[in-house]
Amino acid sequence: MEYGLIGEKLGHSYSKQIHAEFADYHYELLPLTGEEFPVFMEKKDFRAINVTVPYKRCVLPYLSFLDPLAKRIGAVNTIVNRDGSLYGYNTDYYGFLYLLDKNGISVKNKKVLVLGNGGVAQPVFLALSERGAGEVITVKHRAGDGVLTYAQAAAMHADADIVINASPVGMFPDVDATPIDLTPYKNLSAAVDIIANPRKTRFLLEAEKEGIKTADGSPCLLHRQNMQLNSFLILQLTTQKLHRLRKRLPFPWNKRTEGNIWENIEKYRKNSKIWRSHLADCFMPDGSSIFFNYPKRPILIRASYTPRFLYRSGSCPPGLQTAVHKP
Question: Can you list the alpha helix ranges (DSSP code H) found in the chain?
Answer without folding.
Answer: 15-22, 36-43, 68-73, 92-102, 121-130, 150-156, 202-209, 218-236, 239-248, 258-270
